[in-house]
UniProtKB/TrEMBL annotation:
Gene Ontology terms, MF aspect: kinase activity
Alphabetized UniProt keyword annotations: Kinase, Transferase
Organism encoding this protein: Croceibacterium atlanticum
Domain DAGKc: residue ranges: 5-133
Protein name: Lipid kinase
Taxonomic superkingdom: Bacteria
Amino acid sequence: MQIMKQKRAIWLVCNPASGSNDDRHLQSVVRSFADAGFDLSRIIRFPEESVPDAAALDQAGIDLVAVFAGDGTINALVTGLYGWSGAVLVLAGGTMNLLFHRLHGDASSEEVVAAVAAGRARPVRPGVVRSAHGDALAGLLAGPGTSWNQVREAMRKGDVSAMADGAAEAIEESTQGPMVACIDPELGRPEGYPLLMLNPLDQKIEVRAYHSETASEYLSQGLALLRRNFREGPHDFLGRVDHLKIGGTARQRFGLSVDGEARQGGPEELFELAVCEVDLLATLPDDA
């Protein structure tokens, strides 16, 4: 059933390698656009195709682009559209979908599409974690524990040998590598942690520190990281801040993960709360 009186043209960016982005789920999302009365005029499959920039969208007369993918693809699209006059609709195409839940709560992607078509959406500019390595829209990880990202990539590719080798290296790096500590403001243990997680909220950055004492606990934590279910592992809630300087306790460089994409940090890195610089559509009410 069509909801809109006039079809609104929209583009959709997807990533077949993302957590919930198999063909069955993608086709369900595509049908939801048709049912809601949208004209889904183009589907872009990233990374085989580049995410669209503002000029391409404006030239095609598109003022709304949807993304059904994981954190990395969402980040590439949204940050690449900073300054654009249109809006981005984030759908639940990843594993944890942290940004999606900030914008839409526990609704399904199909329910969100219907709500947007019915006019029950509003443009928002949520808080992000800004660093010299880019903005994190869903979350940022820092410390030797980010070495588990390599295992996750091997798992995506089905490379069992690389997964086994990578898990052994990740456990060694997490237990033997230099820890990271919150140095401004001073939060948590001065000797640091193998992994710090920074999640953006609209007013603050939420800081959690993950730690394990034995190899089996590190393996358990690593498996949680692979599933992107970070909160399963043992951790301390350190507080909410508007900025945070993190330093390697041995004055060494440390690993970063910005919305799931690996980066190499320096001996110290500053992270600040900033505002997303393009409109995202939210279907949650203001006071949710």
